[in-house]
Amino acid sequence: MSLLAKIRTVFTMGRGVTKGLPELSASDDPIAFFNKWFAEAQDSGILLPEAMTLATATTDGVPSARMMLLKGVDEQGFVFFTNYESRKGDELADNPHAALVLHWPILERQVRVEGTIRKLGDDESFSYFKSRPRGSRIGAWASEQSRVLGTSADLKKRVKEVESQYPGDDVPLPPFWGGFRLTPERLEFWQGKLNRLHDRLQYERHGDGWKVVRLYP
Hints:
By secondary structure, the protein is α+β, with helices and mostly antiparallel strands. Helices cover 29% and strands 34% of the residues.
């Protein structure tokens, strides 16, 4: 972490307990509100403000969760990328409902998002894939994500094989790798306050707009 980031972290620490959520109405846009919070998290000095928990479940309702990186958000939803044949990919294929949580401790804020999942098109996936470092693109080809691995030497061997197959910078998009977009049906903004009397504001999709309610902490 750079010195500037450390200074920002110290400066923003504890701000969450002094600033509660404003009184918001259903006419407000929760995506715009999220983007405002996300920009403030980026400016705060927090390491990896885009880190989030992704929770999925099997068709039987057995949950699993892991840390991911948020790679985009717009009016259509929240975007992340992964191996489609991984455990989360399999679960999302069978049960296209998921939840996200982003937590920014020094701001005492978290956002919960629940909604439906769909794959991105190949063009969108490739646009992001080609922006990754070459090593990450090679790794996407080499890793049979979530499958049993014999030894670490097996993975290194596979990496060398892929590097030989694609010696230049032109590494194609794997057919088993790409993006997902979560279209939110519910968002909750949580702001820490003194005495655990936290602010919680929940948006739920209602027709073409949003119904918003305040929740007890």
